[in-house]
Design goal:
The chain has nine helices and eight strands. The strands form two sheets. It has a four-stranded antiparallel β-sheet with strand order 1-2-3-6, with helices on one face. The protein has a four-stranded antiparallel β-sheet with strand order 5-4-7-8, with no helix packed on it. The longest helix is centred in the middle third of the chain and has 22 residues. It starts with a helix and ends with a strand. 20% of the residues are buried.
């Protein structure tokens, strides 16, 4: 057994994926090559690290069946014939011909028996490779089940995340109002999440040298939410945190960069209350 083959068996063994025959071959190779022990230790440490980072999660019911079916359907190398069988097949032929085997023939038969025996004691490399592949698939299944994909695939920007949380809240509400120029604005909010998102569609670009500024209005007090950027499609959205029923979101036209006084300078072009 060469070192590459041993590494394949060692990786599978660290994941408890060796057959009894491969386990025996692994043990014999390690006894013959104690210098390979470092490979075994590294594989065991890697398997332990994977186990530590992966909480126990039951695999899908069909995962085991699919894995076993893939292994069972893999092409297997034919079992090598032993030298003893070859010798027994050759004996009747020699007796029938009446010719005594020569010393050279005896030597060839002995060499063939030794070679066949060595081949027979070595597990097929393809078989070991499939066990290593099966072990890798098992680890991938366990790791993928343990990863919180829902959180990883959730929107990363605050507005999109807030919209998702609002839509999933049991008290989600929305209201829509027209915008100058034919567009519309929608306010979506939830008291449970204390958030509101103002989304404008078909919004005209702000006049030259001016910006749109959004405000959350609670009672008589407006608080700036910031300047609104309008994209080429006329869409703009802004988030209001700490939102409560009865608040309203309004938009005014201000000087470039927002109102210098920190208060609206004119009447809003749109205002949507969370009634």
């Amino acid at each position: 057994m060469n070192e590459e083959h041993f590494r394949e068996l060692s990786a599978a063994r660290a994941l408890h994926a060796l057959s009894p025959e491969d386990e025996q071959a692994f043990s014999r190779a390690l006894a013959a090559h104690p210098e390979w022990r470092s490979t075994v230790d590294e594989d065991q440490e890697a398997a332990a690290a994977l186990g530590a980072m992966t909480p126990p999660v039951p695999p899908p019911p069909d995962a085991r069946d699919a894995l076993l079916a893939a292994i069972a359907g893999a092409p297997q190398a034919p079992a090598p014939s032993g030298g003893a069988a070859d010798a027994s097949d050759a004996a009747p032929s020699a007796a029938t011909s009446g010719a005594a085997p020569s010393a050279a023939a005896d030597a060839d038969a002995s060499a063939a028996a030794r070679t066949g025996g060595e081949r027979g004691s070595r597990p097929p490399r393809r078989r070991a490779a499939w066990f290593a592949l099966a072990a890798s698939v098992a680890v991938l299944i366990a790791v993928s089940l343990a990863i919180p994909w829902g959180r990883l695939l959730a929107p990363s920007d605050p507005v999109s995340l807030a919209l998702q949380e609002i839509d999933e809240a049991p008290d989600a509400r929305s209201a829509t109002a027209p915008l100058p120029g034919g567009g519309s604005a929608t306010l979506r909010w939830s008291a449970e999440t204390a958030q509101a998102v103002f989304v404008a569609e078909g919004m005209e670009t702000a006049p030259e040298g001016r910006d749109y500024e959004a405000w959350v209005v609670r009672g008589e007090t407006p608080v700036s939410l910031g300047v609104m950027d309008v994209d080429d499609a006329g869409r703009s959205e802004i988030l209001a945190t700490g939102f409560a029923p009865g608040d309203a979101v309004a938009v005014t036209v201000e000087t470039r960069g927002g109102s210098p006084s920190g208060a609206p300078s004119g009447d809003p072009i749109v205002a949507i209350p969370a009634a």
